[in-house]
Amino acid sequence: MPEAIDIKVLHELDGTVEAELNRHLSMAKEWFPHDYVPWSQGRDFAFLGGADWSPEESNVTPASREALLVNLLTEDNLPGYHAAIARIMGKEGAWGQWVNRWTAEENRHGIVIRDFLTVTRAIDPVVLERARMQHMEIGYEPDHGDKVLHGVAYVSFQELATRVSHRNTGKASGDSLCEQMMQRVAADENLHMIFYRNVLAAAIEIAPNEAMRAITDVVKGFQMPGYTIDGFLRKSVAIANAGIYDLRLHHDEVLMPVLRKWGVFELEGLDAEGEKAREELSDFMTGLDEAAKKFEERREARRARIAARAE
Predict the structure, then answer these.
(1) Torsion-angle region of 271 (φ positive above 0: left; ψ -120 to 50: alpha; else: beta)
(2) Could you give all domains of the chain from N- to C-terminal order, each with its CATH number?
(3) I need a labelling partner for 72 at 20 to 30 A (CA). Which of 3, 180, 210, 216 fits?
């Protein structure tokens, strides 16, 4: 059950949620997954007398294959995300309308990516299906439990992280159709981020100290929802080495833009606990920036060694 402060904030945010829902509906563009799939490239697999997948059929880069697999499996766990968000935010009023609308839009992402990957044979569909079954059997439970402020803070960052990951996966794929599709998906994720970011901005005005603690906890413990995917660490390393999503992008393009928008480092009137949370956040961001620099240096050195061996 949400804590007392979360219940208070939840109710006081009703007007903001309704306004943000209406803003979202006015900005969201209708689109259809089938329009982004080159159906003419489709062929039967062995079960129907055709040929099963082989690596040389894929037109996307190896790193983007890993990213596409992670991205799609993350989208596949939508039932778990819906259940968690509906439990935390409720199923009534504007909150309930938003949860259902968000779920419907997110479902398109899994549909279009799966259809595209299957038709173009970009990824082995057998591997993909086995991974989907395994990942969904694990399910999903948010690390922050049923805390409203933590939940809204998390999705504010997570939606932007997903947008960056989808966009860069398309760019790295080497396939113009794949890039176009992933840009379309990323556009949805950006609108979702704006909704949650604006809702939490209003929450900061209502409960600044509790919101600061939630933001700090989420930033320090942030994990993408697909972290339970089998082999996630190995895949994440390949994705980071390819520059699709790494510590630098996480710091510069995900965390800092949202924190600046909220004005967390300029916020006045915090009590001792709020200031403590902000100091923790500042220290963590400094450490993350240093870790990102070290990762970039190691990656560049590794690339230089590989280039030297190739000469």
Answers:
(1) beta
(2) 4-310 (1.10.620.20)
(3) 216
